[in-house]
Prior knowledge:
The protein is an alpha+beta fold and about 70 residues long. It has one helix spanning about 35-50; strands at about 1-10, 15-20, 25, 55-60, 65-70. Helix content is about 20%, strand content about 40%. The chain has a 5-stranded mixed β-sheet, with helices on one face.
Amino acid sequence: MNIKVKVKTKHSKQEVVRFGDNRFLIYLQSEPENNKANIELIGLLSKYFGVPPARIKIKFGFSSDEKLIEIG
């Protein structure tokens, strides 16, 4: 399954907000430096979808706030 996400970093909360089919707005606490936000994103999506983090991959947008995520 592929999903599109928009990531908002440096927030006081972690939250996953679904809007539409396979589209999500993700609030993260980490800063977008040294891969911290991507690591937090994968961990949060792992909990949300109930899959191991190894099954979640960032396909496009690794350094962008809009990403395409593959959940296998």
